[in-house]
Amino acid sequence: MRLGNMYGPDHTFLGVPAADPDDTRQWAAAGAAIIGAPFDGGTSHRAGCRFGPQAMRAADYLPHDGSRPSLALGVDALVDLGVVDLGDVEMPSGDVERSLAALEERVRAVAAASVVPIILGGDHTIALPDVRAVAHHVGWGRVAVIHFDAHADTGDTQWGSLYGHGTPMRRLIESGACRGDRFLQIGLRGYWPEPETLAWMAEQGMRSFEMAEVVARGLDAVLDEALLIAGDDCDAVFLSVDVDVVDPGAAPGTGTPEPGGLTSRQLLDAVRRIAMEAPLAGMDVVEVAPPYDHADITAYLGNRVVLEALGGMAWRAKQRRGDAVRHPSDPLLGRD
Amino acid sequence: MRLGNMYGPDHTFLGVPAADPDDTRQWAAAGAAIIGAPFDGGTSHRAGCRFGPQAMRAADYLPHDGSRPSLALGVDALVDLGVVDLGDVEMPSGDVERSLAALEERVRAVAAASVVPIILGGDHTIALPDVRAVAHHVGWGRVAVIHFDAHADTGDTQWGSLYGHGTPMRRLIESGACRGDRFLQIGLRGYWPEPETLAWMAEQGMRSFEMAEVVARGLDAVLDEALLIAGDDCDAVFLSVDVDVVDPGAAPGTGTPEPGGLTSRQLLDAVRRIAMEAPLAGMDVVEVAPPYDHADITAYLGNRVVLEALGGMAWRAKQRRGDAVRHPSDPLLGRD
Amino acid sequence: MRLGNMYGPDHTFLGVPAADPDDTRQWAAAGAAIIGAPFDGGTSHRAGCRFGPQAMRAADYLPHDGSRPSLALGVDALVDLGVVDLGDVEMPSGDVERSLAALEERVRAVAAASVVPIILGGDHTIALPDVRAVAHHVGWGRVAVIHFDAHADTGDTQWGSLYGHGTPMRRLIESGACRGDRFLQIGLRGYWPEPETLAWMAEQGMRSFEMAEVVARGLDAVLDEALLIAGDDCDAVFLSVDVDVVDPGAAPGTGTPEPGGLTSRQLLDAVRRIAMEAPLAGMDVVEVAPPYDHADITAYLGNRVVLEALGGMAWRAKQRRGDAVRHPSDPLLGRD
Amino acid sequence: MRLGNMYGPDHTFLGVPAADPDDTRQWAAAGAAIIGAPFDGGTSHRAGCRFGPQAMRAADYLPHDGSRPSLALGVDALVDLGVVDLGDVEMPSGDVERSLAALEERVRAVAAASVVPIILGGDHTIALPDVRAVAHHVGWGRVAVIHFDAHADTGDTQWGSLYGHGTPMRRLIESGACRGDRFLQIGLRGYWPEPETLAWMAEQGMRSFEMAEVVARGLDAVLDEALLIAGDDCDAVFLSVDVDVVDPGAAPGTGTPEPGGLTSRQLLDAVRRIAMEAPLAGMDVVEVAPPYDHADITAYLGNRVVLEALGGMAWRAKQRRGDAVRHPSDPLLGRD
Amino acid sequence: MRLGNMYGPDHTFLGVPAADPDDTRQWAAAGAAIIGAPFDGGTSHRAGCRFGPQAMRAADYLPHDGSRPSLALGVDALVDLGVVDLGDVEMPSGDVERSLAALEERVRAVAAASVVPIILGGDHTIALPDVRAVAHHVGWGRVAVIHFDAHADTGDTQWGSLYGHGTPMRRLIESGACRGDRFLQIGLRGYWPEPETLAWMAEQGMRSFEMAEVVARGLDAVLDEALLIAGDDCDAVFLSVDVDVVDPGAAPGTGTPEPGGLTSRQLLDAVRRIAMEAPLAGMDVVEVAPPYDHADITAYLGNRVVLEALGGMAWRAKQRRGDAVRHPSDPLLGRD
Amino acid sequence: MRLGNMYGPDHTFLGVPAADPDDTRQWAAAGAAIIGAPFDGGTSHRAGCRFGPQAMRAADYLPHDGSRPSLALGVDALVDLGVVDLGDVEMPSGDVERSLAALEERVRAVAAASVVPIILGGDHTIALPDVRAVAHHVGWGRVAVIHFDAHADTGDTQWGSLYGHGTPMRRLIESGACRGDRFLQIGLRGYWPEPETLAWMAEQGMRSFEMAEVVARGLDAVLDEALLIAGDDCDAVFLSVDVDVVDPGAAPGTGTPEPGGLTSRQLLDAVRRIAMEAPLAGMDVVEVAPPYDHADITAYLGNRVVLEALGGMAWRAKQRRGDAVRHPSDPLLGRD
After folding, report:
1. Is the pLDDT of residue C323 over 70?
2. More confident residue, A333 or B90
3. Rounded to two decimals, what is the model's pTM?
4. Cβ-nearest to D297 among C194, C209, C252
5. In this predicted complex, what is the ipTM?
6. Is the CB of A268 less than 8 angstroms away from the CB of E255?
7. Residue C75 has pLDDT above 70, yes or no
8. Helical segments of F257-296, H only
């Protein structure tokens, strides 16, 4: 049976059709499926991102009609891809293991049907089941991960537990679901993790771009390199976006804000480009915490990150079909 | 080893001395001990009360010097009782069972030393270990519970789990730690629980005062009855205060606000009276959720609830020693 | 065709069934129908109550399952009455005349089917079409109005216009839809209207209870009188609740806050009593303005006002069927 | 020269005429004069009440036209009394002594002209110059003070200084400007001051009504007693209202909130009654701190406190002229 | 007669002289005139920008003395140009047609006197009367429009109406007041309008710079092109700035926030440059919605946009008089 | 005796050891010492930065354990330098002269021990005692000042007083503590000061980089020039950071926000670079005003500004010892 928003009234992502995850026929033809993961039991500090899925689904001022034609891309991804919303997975925040298992099972079923799962978090703990589930479908160790975040999330344990929003990337690499040397992190900064964890990361061959490097080289150059690595001997890319990669000024609604991040413009452009250039097999957007948001701006940002990714996917599909496409930086009107 | 505030910098309740829970000599002579329970993994809706302990410890504008002489009671409970702060219990919100076990162990150790535990929540799930631990000391089934709340918290399960902030009172009564017919609930209102649960409550002999009854009879009459029941064939009282018993206007910083509650004045007077008239063996103050608070007013209220209870305890001790005491409603100054 | 929430995603009042207003068969058997009136073009100061309908529909922490068993009344009004939600009326705030006409038509159709319309505002301008529509069904001049508000809303014009949230009650009485001497106002206070308007009100035989009178006599006595007048030579009562009748501390989310109002407890008890004792033919709850709300407490209050009214109606129906009923102030549990 | 609002654009209290304090002819015929005291350098905790004067002047939704006909009293105090606004006194918060001297000089000039000064604070430090200035006019030691506050403000020193919002009442009594045994405090509560200061207060013969006494006896009885004392061998009353006497739920915008206060309804009724029954010679309303306010509700409350006092004064003048007056609790309309 | 702020107390833009719009002699010699357009009846989602004019007038921490010497430009535009404030136009939000007509009449009178109108919105619906009025003076079809916005505002109808904040640019071009091929839009992004509207825009020869193009080419290059087009066969420029062109992080106080916008630095620099280089005949700043603002930062931004435009105008006048001018990017001090 | 946080409970900067300023042995070996200056009596507009020290000390989500290993620099400055926290100086905001004297004495004692003082404001008035004290140690006139700010703070007087947050830089240069031509200001913008003050600044040889110059040349080039000047015939640098140099979108929690500032990324990079390249002898971070902050993002920014400066100092020490160092823009991981 379909669970809508675990908290609050049911509504789908910008009005796309609802579907029952238990009835595959309802959604097997979709290009992508929205899955809510309203879990914040893995947070090490501020909770609240359990309300992220419903907030990201609703954050818009246009009619919730399941259509969003992109100015930049000339596609209407929700329609073109056929996006559906499978509702939330029941994930009580007090029971991390049960919750992660339920999410992994849901994502696995979706990926198995060759539908791209778009998971709305929830805290970053969910990247563990998300990527594992996709890797089951794409091939264990055959998925590269591009990870936008202020934090590496590669801690060994958190409050003595293996599971939490500070550890999923270590669990993932340990599991072999993805290779450490195909794990690309963009936007790290601040004062965590400590040297021992950095050493472990280096041993895995991880490639992490700290903000000072992003500033020095430019985000475009960083993406060039990241996409090159991701495309080398892997079959697909999983994109994991922690909204705290963006500066707290533009993304205050999050649990562990770290000053000095990307602009929202940079994140949107980067996500769009990745989806245009790489074969996305799944995505999550995490750590949107409405209680700390103001005027819903962080929820809007999360919503647009999803739309840019879907738009890039739709554009890529169109291009690969041989249809004419417009490039985002082409003049929208005039100068022909 | 002492864990200070699990989240944020360490500080004690209004500056009372810190003590290490593992070193009993540091606190065995205290009259009461503050214990932080920064857990919100049992919330069914808004989280955030994990920050309740630190907020209630800090909510004041006077120097944090471990002294608070009460105008109404003429006692300085922090000093007179000798209150210490044992810091927080490590309670990761994603692991309800481990967290509850850790808290129960801590409270049990305190109660065993004949120190009255004052637990700062956290969500109401913690009432289960709190009362169990106290009952181990006072006598299984020998503790009456006076429970201020908008909600009965007697659900059978929550998201399929036995543990959560909607179920602790059922677990308690089932366990026999306290008798159902010595369980007094004040302030219930709204639309929960459903008839089946009410029937179960009736079977246990619970006595619940819904707000319409409180309005009709007056809170003083309600307290008369409650104290009479509580004092009948029980050896002590556990006082459990969910801040949502107060109207959301005066207590907005909580997870499940229910309009139409007590005034903060009513709650403070009631708590003081109970502590003056009944033998308190333990207390918790729960569901203060700072992310939803404004200008810290809910945290202030939680802080004052604790102070009124401690003040009542100190007053009672003084009175029982035969010392002269003042009655709260006596003129503070003049008219002699 | 059904328009859900005019703003934001569609959802119904606490999950009651949605129905298409154009297809009478979907809802003609219902006991009451929710109608959203998301209009704030009549506000003389702060706007924002266009978001009142969606906020009041969603303001709860329990599952949105269309069931709300009342502790105080022992009925589940949403189920017992069979409440449906007809969605919003399209009411662009920039076009007051078109919007009021559309609303009147909708409410009239509902009332004509002997379904009690429950209109969620929106600003108080909507009382004009609401009462007119109900009077068309009950009988022109045969509906008494009980009006909770800080303001009389009997201005002659507003910014030179006949329509606005300061004038509906004058328009109504002028139209004859309801008689001035069966128009009961409770909770007025402050500095409006000026003597000329008061004189007009007196000429109509209006009975307005200013807060100082409410304090001096008690709200119960005021209700006794109001119900007596309302029941004299009228066939039904329309209940119009402006949330600003409640003190701004408990209802900050409104456009024209006036200090010194009722407590939320008083309003809830009064609404419930009216619905239990008088034949309600319609109701509106207005001026809930989410942009000025905090932690949703005003939206919760609006939601509960609706539930208390529905509960009272369900209780009254049960009582009149001869079924056993419980009185709100009876002990919920125990003392039998 | 007139200084308007010291901070922000100039505007007068609800649009009453502006007057230049240096040109007495502009305002000598007024019944009362508004004076802004935008000083928060005496706060011991949260600052921000420097913005109190401009906030209280502006807090309304009606046209700022210098007219406010009172429903309860049937007078338009702003017009009937002839109220003017002298703007702010320049009071830089970093220089307490200069600021207090400047304010005392201004208030003294106003009182000397037999115009009733209404001072908008600012923190409570200003009560010292306010009452001193009025006493210079009425007679040193001939003014009774009625003081609404959660705090006694009778500390000996604050941060080692004689001046601050915790000490003005001691300075006043020490100076002889008012007698300790004609100093009435209503609404005290909480945990300050300590016994030594209480002893000093008792020595002065102060009469302080703690909230528990207010609850036990009722506010009306308390006012009966207070007015009796105030009228005994004194020639006038100074009314000093600290907005924190009201519960933080209804007055969050203040620096030292203390849970368990009066309702805003109680304060408004009490202020009105005092102004109706006693000869007011001056008044201040203090500690409204906009940065901590929500939706301006505390500023609204401060505004209405001023209006109720002015209304009471106008009503009293009318009554003493022998004109017919209405009593607030009389029916506003109907029941004749 | 002059209407000050339609809502709240009267004050002028940063203290510039007030003038009565009906008395031309008071303002005919001014270089520019501020006009408030407190209308939000055209908003399709969040209202609140009716409070934009008063908020933008007041948003500053310096004395409101009608003087603002620009560091960057070396001019004091308020003084040099002689700026006056004509107050608000009465624009009740519930009556869009009457409101737009009143505004057009006011702006037309100002432009007819060769005074540059600076209109403070209000929602973007007002661009229709604003540009029409200016075109009446400059020449129908002889005004180029430079339009900063996240949205094209070229919808055909909104809620079935021709008027609203989604349609003014279409109405304008249809009317011939300005030519479609001299209509320059900067900062568009997101998912609106749909292809049909884009096709209509293309037919008109509009030139719209979507954010991806702005990022790719740089804002300076975009402005080069825009200014070139605007200066070709047109006699003047109207500048219309929707504050939502800026990223929501820096401009949260708006109704339809769209992530990924300009920085506030970019907008300020661009507005200044346009006013320095092009002959401005009028300007509006719209969609500043205080209820959604935080710490007034969006109001401050709107205020500075006005000041930068006025500064550029004053600088341009000075330069054209042959006086020495400083260039903004010259060192402010030193390095000579 | 050590005063912890003057307001609220005591805690140190991210958990570094507390030390008693009166017992030099406790801290003489430290590399840097945190000093709180909780004073806002010098603010010309919004107060609240008295709470800056406690907010900046606490603003983090990691354990407060006195360790913060920097990703960018590869140092743990808190540990490597040995940072201690001396608590706050008692600075009552109502007494500017006493407060500044007390602060100067404290900072002078610290500098005299060759410990680098890091002062957390408080308003910018404190720069006067801060730099004076450091100059006493380094050499009167031998300290260059690098000053990030939206405002020059070189006013002659403020409200007629020599002291306030608008005048400290003038007082400093007049005193000779630092030379005007070694005073570098970065980030100025807006409309203050007026030409007379600019002329005075020019006479002193000050070098001020307005934002338009920063944009035109790039911040790196500006820093090149600033560091060159600062290093010419001076022995050390004092770094004074007013958080309002950052755009209000990322730093809303401040008293005099000025749109169009640096990004937080730019400020962090600049501070780090200055500390890496120049010999810092002292630093202050001022004007963080928590009452105007949202989700603590401005407090976080202030905290990180301190950490970046300390990190740069630790890196510089390491480099000068000849140890291997990493450059911030080197790849954090991979690409070796």
Report:
1. yes
2. B90
3. 0.98
4. C252
5. 0.97
6. no
7. yes
8. 264-277
- B200 to chain D, any CB pair closer than 8 A? The answer is no
- D17 class by beta-carbon count within 10 Å (0-12 exposed, 13-18 middle, 19+ buried): middle
Select the residue of F195, F212, F217 nearest E269 (Cβ to Cβ). Answer: F212
- Token code pair at residue F308: 């970046």
* Residue B5 C-alpha, separation from nearest chain F C-alpha, in angstroms: 10
The answer to whether F265 contacts A209, with C-beta atoms less than 8 Å apart, is no
Q: What is the DSSP string of F153-208?
A: ---S-BTTBS-STTSHHHHHHHHTSS-GGGEEEEEE-SS-S-HHHHHHHHHTT-EE
Backbone angles phi, psi at F62, to 5 degrees: -90, 165
Chains that touch E (3 or more CB pairs under 8 A): A, C, D, F
The stretch A116-133 carries a mean pLDDT of 98
Provide the token pair at F248: 């209000």
Q: What is the DSSP string of A82-108?
A: IEEEEEE----TTBHHHHHHHHHHHHH
| Domain membership flag for residue F129 | yes
Contact by Cβ (8 Å): B10, F64 = yes
* Residue C324 CA from chain centroid, whole number: 28
Of C136, C133, C141, C138, nearest in space to C105 by CA: C133
Average of pLDDT values for D2-29?
Answer: 96
The secondary structure element, H or E, covering residue D187 is strand D183-188
Residue E248 lies in a domain: yes
Domain of D227, in residue numbers: 13-320
Q: Which of A244, A207, A35, A276 is nearest to A133 (CA)?
A: A35
Number of domains in chain B: 1
Touching, B vs C (3+ Cβ pairs under 8 A): yes
Report the C-alpha gap between F18 and F3 in whole angstroms: 10
- Whether the CA torsion F123, F128, F132, F135 is positive or negative: it is positive
Side-chain-facing half-sphere of F208: CA atoms under 13 Å? 28
Cβ neighbours of F43 in D, within 8 Å: 93
Which backbone phi and psi does C16 adopt, to 5 degrees? -65, 160
At residue A335, the pLDDT reads: 58
Taking residues F245-262, what's their average pLDDT? Answer: 98
C295 to B194: CB separation less than 8 angstroms, yes or no = no
The CATH number linked to C240 is 3.40.800.10
Bridge partner residues of C84 (DSSP): C33
Count of pairs with CB atoms under 8 A, one residue in C, one in E: 74
Domain presence at residue B330: no
pLDDT digit string (tens) for E255-264? 999 999 999 9
- Say which residue, B84 or B334, is predicted with more confidence: B84
Q: Which residue of B has its CA nearest to D297?
A: B249
Q: Coil, helix or strand for D135? A: helix
Residue D142 CA: distances (Å) to CA of D173, D232, F115: 12, 10, 59
Q: Is B232 exposed, middle or buried (0-12, 13-18, 19+ CB in 10 A)?
A: exposed
Q: Give the model's pLDDT for residue D335.
A: 58
- Asked if residues C86 and C33 have their Cβ atoms less than 8 Å apart, the reply is yes
Cβ-contact A120, B121 below 8 angstroms: no
Distance from CA of A247 to the nearest CA of E (A): 9
Does residue A3 sit within a domain?
Answer: no
The nearest CA of chain D is from the CA of B327 a distance in Å of: 9
How many helices (DSSP H) and strands (DSSP E) are in chain D? Answer: 10, 8
C and F touch with 3+ CB pairs <8 Å, answer: no
For residues A92 and B158, is the Cβ–Cβ distance under 8 A? yes
Q: Is A10 on the interface with B (CB under 8 A)?
A: no
- Contact: B217, C329; criterion CB under 8 Å: yes
Please check the confidence at residue A336 and state whether its pLDDT lies above 60: no
Mean pLDDT to the nearest integer, A313-330? 96
Phi/psi region, residue E331 (left: phi>0; alpha: psi -120 to 50; beta: rest), is beta
Flag whether pLDDT at F35 surpasses 80. yes
Q: Residue E216 carries which DSSP code?
A: H
